[in-house]
Structure to design on (456 residues):
């Protein structure tokens, strides 16, 4: 096996920015719509997804030479869903309030395409440690988008930041109103669309690359 | 067919596929079982505590800031008493068919109010909570939600303090002493006709259906526990006559 030096930092930053799972790979949109009404839920969701992606990539990558290729999707899903169930159980036991807030979304990590997408496109072809960092990078990239969207939605939709009112009362008295659209799913569609456009039009940083 | 020497066995052979999937299933199920069984004690303790917190919340004994575990257990044992009543609203010792469970809120040995468990369907799943009444048998003193699977940020707002606090002081009887229940308005309760405002709380924007199901559930629960409320109202009348 050739000993090439793996640049872990590059792997992580690529997931966060250049090949951001939501803005560049357009994965994980469904949950990005659902949990971004409030900042607090999106932060916890981001952390949970980062942990699950990192460890599922690690496990799948270390098994990559053993996994029969014709049942590999089933194997990947079995590993991912076991991890998610364990995460859910741990949250329920030690972070009960957070698990109550996230309710069904923890279970929905199983269906988050980022986890399976990274397993398929990275972990099956790379070494365990590199896959682990790839999972972390992509999880953080997802969290970044989630928190940005949630920040805008919470601010415009409810006038709050992490649950605290930050738009002073006199502005409301002067006729300002919260934007009801932002609380609903279409609000997230608009923001994510604008973010993808913004990210991909920033000069020099992210020219769309052709897939190898 | 045998593999030539020095070549690893084919990982895609039927035997290998079956072996691999068997092994994987066993390992995964063992891990999940271990997590579920090992953490069950913690989870049950959390749920039990959460239930107590919400009963205390409905009774306005604690605010939405969380006190310590010891404080909760102490408050609960001093003020809350779980009782079973028959369909006439009489307190009974043993469980009989059609008996109902509720909680009394006591202070210095006197019953100050009662707390009914709410168990209804929501938009995505069950909503479980508590609705507390003052001892006049018609004024709501508090509401809390113990478990639900509504959309966070939309229907999930039934968990928030502003929504739960808005139930306080609402009446389940109208000015002619007829039962009307309490419900969740579509939009602001202030936009409703004057005679309805005492029975409705502000709705949650984006959660019309959650509100609808919760209103229905509260009404059904109140009808089921009607005998209890009537008993309390009669006691109240009696007490008023005695003082006059």
């Amino acid at each position: 096996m050739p000993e090439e030096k793996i640049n872990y930092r590059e792997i992580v930053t690529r997931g966060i920015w250049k090949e951001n799972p939501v803005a560049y790979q357009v994965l994980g949109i469904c949950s990005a719509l659902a949990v971004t009404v409030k900042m607090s839920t999106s932060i916890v969701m981001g952390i949970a997804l980062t942990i699950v992606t990192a460890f599922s990539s690690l496990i799948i990558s270390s098994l990559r030479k053993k996994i029969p290729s014709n049942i590999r999707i089933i194997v990947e899903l079995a590993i991912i869903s076991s991890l998610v169930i364990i995460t859910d159980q741990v949250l329920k036991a030690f972070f009960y309030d957070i698990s109550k807030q996230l309710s069904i979304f923890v279970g929905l990590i199983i269906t988050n395409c980022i986890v399976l997408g990274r397993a398929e496109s990275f972990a099956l072809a790379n070494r365990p440690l590199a896959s682990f960092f790839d999972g972390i990078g992509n999880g953080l990239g997802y969290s970044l988008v989630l928190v940005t969207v949630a920040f805008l939605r919470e601010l415009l939709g409810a006038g709050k930041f992490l649950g605290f009112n930050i738009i002073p009362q006199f502005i409301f008295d002067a006729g300002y109103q919260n934007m009801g659209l932002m609380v609903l799913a279409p609000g997230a569609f608009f923001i994510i669309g604008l973010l993808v456009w913004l990210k991909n039009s920033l000069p020099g940083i992210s020219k769309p690359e052709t897939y190898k | 067919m045998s593999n030539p020497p020095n070549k690893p066995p084919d990982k895609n052979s039927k035997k290998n596929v079956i072996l691999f999937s068997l092994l994987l299933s066993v390992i995964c199920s063992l891990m999940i079982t271990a997590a579920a069984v090992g953490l069950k004690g913690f989870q049950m303790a959390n749920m039990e505590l959460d239930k107590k917190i919400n009963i205390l919340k409905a009774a306005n004994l604690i605010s939405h800031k969380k006190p310590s575990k010891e404080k909760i257990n102490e408050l609960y044992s001093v003020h809350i008493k779980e009782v079973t009543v028959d369909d006439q609203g009489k307190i009974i010792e043993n469980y009989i068919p059609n008996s109902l469970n509720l909680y009394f809120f006591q202070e210095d040995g006197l019953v100050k109010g009662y707390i009914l468990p709410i168990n209804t369907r929501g938009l995505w799943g069950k909503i479980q909570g508590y609705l507390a009444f003052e001892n006049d048998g018609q004024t709501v003193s508090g509401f809390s939600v113990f478990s639900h699977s509504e959309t966070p940020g939309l229907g999930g707002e039934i968990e928030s303090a502003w929504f739960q606090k808005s139930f306080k002081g609402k009446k389940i009887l109208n000015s002619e002493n007829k039962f009307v229940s309490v419900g969740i308005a579509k939009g602001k309760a202030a936009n409703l006709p004057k005679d309805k405002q005492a029975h409705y709380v502000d709705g949650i924007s984006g959660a019309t259906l959650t509100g609808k199901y919760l209103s229905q559930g509260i009404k059904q629960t109140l009808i089921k526990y009607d005998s209890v409320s009537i008993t309390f109202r009669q006691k109240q009348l009696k007490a008023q006559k005695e003082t006059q």
